[in-house]
Structure formats: structure tokens, C-alpha cells
Amino acid sequence: MTKFEYASMLYKNPRSIGCDKCHGNLGEKTLITEYKHKGIQKQLYAPDITKISFENFKKVFSKNTKIMPKYFFTDKEIQELYYYIQEVNK
Ligand code: HEC
């Protein structure tokens, strides 16, 4: 398995719901779902993660996010995930 294959696997199949389910294959801004709230049509998006710095990328994993699930990654795994996003958007 190459470094890229490993990183891609981690992105699509971490020990919980895959990142691609919400952020898409490339980490671009992605529509998760649409719903109606008090008669108003709303959209729920996963943010674009293709242009953020590694520092900002890393932060999300120690935050209490509203929608994104909690993952328990090692620093190395976070680096792999970031690597995947960079490679796939080349
Ligand atoms: C259930 C949908 C969902 C899944 C699965 C998911 N995310 Fe997210 N992600 C979000 C949403 C929505 C946000 C915005 C913060 C919030 O409201 O939770 C976010 C925020 C982020 C951010 C911060 C972006 C910024 O601008 O600060 C990063 C980085 C990120 N996600 C990466 C990932 C990675 C990598 C995975 C897989 C390990 C993943 N996400 C899985 C929905 C998801």
C-alpha cells in the first residue's frame, strides 16, 4: 500500500463515519442535507477543507463540533488525512 492509498483509506474509512460522507471525495464545500425549518428552506454544508492550513485542520479534532462527529486520531493520522486532501487536490 502506498502512502497515498493509506491516507485515502483513512479519509474514507476512519474508525467512524467517513469524511467523504460529509466533505465529499475532495474536501470541497459539500451539501450534507436540505431541510425545512419553520417553513424556511435550509441547507447544511460541510465546509471547504482544501485551502486551510495544517494548524487549522488539526484544531477541529480537539474541538467540540456541532455536527461533525468526534474522532480519536493520533497526530500521525491527522497528518495523513491532511496529506490526502493536499494530494487529491493537486
Ligand atoms: C457528519 C458530517 C461530517 C463528517 C463525517 C466529517 N465532517 Fe468535518 N466538518 C463537518 C461540519 C458540519 C463542520 C463544521 C463544524 C461543525 O459544525 O461541526 C466540519 C469541520 C471540519 C474541519 C474544520 C474546517 C475549518 O474551516 O475549520 C475539518 C478540518 C474537517 N471537518 C475535517 C474532517 C475530516 C478529516 C473528517 C474525517 C475524519 C471529517 N471532517 C468528517 C461535517 C463532517
Provide a concise account of the structure shown:
With 90 residues, this protein is an alpha+beta fold. The protein contains 4 helices and 2 strands, in the order H-H-E-E-H-H. It has one domain.
Structure description:
The protein has 90 residues and is an alpha+beta fold. The protein has one domain. The protein contains four helices and two strands, in the order ααββαα. The chain has helices spanning 3-12, 20-23, 54-59, 75-88; strands at residues 30-37, 40-46. Strands 1-2 form a two-stranded antiparallel sheet. The protein binds heme C. Residues 14, 17, 19, 21-23, 32, 46-47, 49, 52, 56-57, 60, 65-69, 71, 81 line the site of heme C (HEC).
